[in-house]
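$ ./design --mode recover --in tokens.txt
reading tokens...
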């Protein structure tokens, strides 16, 4: 039918995803927090409030904590648009919420910055 013949069982895209149980994911997150706590790589901050989305203000915040040039993960209780917009242009800096943090981000960061409100949210997630 086709010039040169047809391909019967041609290549098909393969799905490499797999299911991981919720309890296993939660246990991995708990272990990641424990590893960072044991290495003293967690800092609890009062809060961060930026009036406007300016990268310079976020860089100054990191300079005040002596974290310039290190991979940081800032965990907030809920989304603060000014902080997110200020940090997205800074290399090695990531901002997430307490309910959306994942194990890879925890282990990839050199220093965790957790706000006090987010700390209570994390504790309630551990109790589940």
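writing sequence...
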């Amino acid at each position: 039918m086709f010039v040169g013949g047809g391909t019967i069982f041609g290549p098909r895209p393969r799905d490499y995803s797999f299911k991981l149980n919720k309890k296993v994911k939660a246990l991995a997150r708990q272990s990641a927090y424990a590893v960072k706590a044991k290495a003293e790589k967690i800092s609890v901050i009062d809060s961060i409030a930026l009036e406007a989305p300016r990268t310079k203000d976020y860089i100054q915040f990191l300079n005040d904590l002596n974290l310039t040039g290190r991979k940081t993960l800032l965990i907030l209780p809920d989304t603060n648009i000014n902080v997110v917009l200020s940090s997205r242009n800074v290399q090695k800096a990531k901002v997430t919420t307490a309910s959306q943090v994942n194990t890879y981000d925890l282990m990839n960061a050199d220093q965790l910055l957790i706000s006090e409100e987010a700390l209570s949210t994390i504790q309630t997630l551990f109790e589940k």
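exit 0
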